[in-house]
Structure to design on (97 residues):
């Protein structure tokens, strides 16, 4: 399953967002890869997600595989596409579990 999301936060992919992406994907039966430009990272790996160095307005491709791929892709899309502060959000809400 493939989707593309545009980074909506002025801070780009912050440590908080990378951590939330990894936590959401780890809860699901899926494997997710993110691609930004020439860089590719496994979504479960916080340093890898941070290494994408994606800033505001950057498109990030989401490739998800597995029995819960659609949930994982949706969770990543919501987290990275949110321009607001996620400090009070629960990653379970994003993962749909």
């Amino acid at each position: 399953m493939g989707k593309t999301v545009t980074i909506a936060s002025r801070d780009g992919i912050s440590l908080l967002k990378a951590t939330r992406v990894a936590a959401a994907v780890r809860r699901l039966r899926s494997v997710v890869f993110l691609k930004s430009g020439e860089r590719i990272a496994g979504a479960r790996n916080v340093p890898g997600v941070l290494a994408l160095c994606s800033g505001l307005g950057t498109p990030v491709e989401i490739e998800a595989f597995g029995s819960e791929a659609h949930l994982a892709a949706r969770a990543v899309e919501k987290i990275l596409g949110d321009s607001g502060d996620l400090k009070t959000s629960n990653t379970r809400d994003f993962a749909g579990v």
